[in-house]
Amino acid sequence: MAKKSGGRLVSSAGLVNYYDSDDHRAIHISPTAVLVIALATGVAVYILNLLF
C-alpha cells in the first residue's frame, strides 16, 4: 500500500473553523439577546395574528 504524504486530515474536507477568529469589527450578540428578540418577535406575530 502506498503511504500518503502530508499531514493534512482527510476528514476535514477543506472546512475552516471560523469561530477561532477574533475579528473586532464583527457584530457580537449574546445568546440571551437572541432569545429575547426571538421571543418578542413571536409574541408580536401572535398578537397581530389575533387582531387581524
What is the percent of helical residues?
A: 40-55%
Question: How large is the share of residues in beta strands?
Answer: under 5%
Major sheet summary line = none
pLDDT below 50 for ≥5 consecutive residues: which ranges? Answer: none
The number of helical segments is 1
In round numbers, the mean pLDDT is 78
Gyration radius, to the nearest Å?
A: 22 Å
- Distance between termini? 70 Å
How many beta-strand segments?
A: 0
State the order of secondary-structure elements, H for helix, E for strand. Answer: H
Shape label: elongated
Structural class: mainly alpha
Question: What's this, in brief?
Answer:
The protein is mostly helical. The protein contains 1 helix and no strands.
What features would you describe in this structure?
The chain is an all-alpha fold. The protein has one helix and no strands. It has one helix at residues 31-51. One of its GO terms (cellular component) is plasma membrane.
Supply database-style keywords.
52 residues; mainly alpha; 1 helix; 40% helix; elongated; SecG/Sec61-beta/Sbh; transmembrane helix; Preprot_translocase_SecG; protein transport
Secondary structure layout:
Layout: H1 31-51
Main location: membrane
Subcellular location: Cell membrane
Family: Belongs to the SEC61-beta family.
